[in-house]
Amino acid sequence: MICGLKEIRFAAILLYQPHHQGNMAFAGKYEFEGDENYDDFVKKIGLPSDKIEMGRNCKIVTEVVQNGNDFTWTQHFPGGRTTSNTFTIGKEADMETMGGKKFKATVKMEDGKIVADFPNYHHTAEICGGKLVEISTASGVVYKRTSKRIA
Length: 151
What we know:
By secondary structure, the chain is of the alpha+beta class. It contains three helices and eleven strands; from the N terminus they run αβααββββββββββ.
């Protein structure tokens, strides 16, 4: 699924207009709905086999709290494990990969998408048709995860 240009422009306009600061385009809870290229991607980034199995078709719930350009992006995994990244658009922040590796990154907003360079992959996230669509790319392998809004 690809978002239409009008949708992306509309989201970008809302995010950047001062009188729309209250609009939280990403804020909400999203439950894993489906993915593409999981195995190829996680092998490419060197995820250990135990974590690969744990993550396959995992009903991850992603919770996004947004206050203007400040975000807390939390992933809740079955069994109680949680990973959380807090960042401000355009400022360097301490982050953690899906494999648990800590690193520093500057998260950007480009055309309504959140964009971040992780140590061994490029990641984008956008809201498309009410769903959270995340795309990660590592050495030409593209992984796409779609999550439906549940709150």
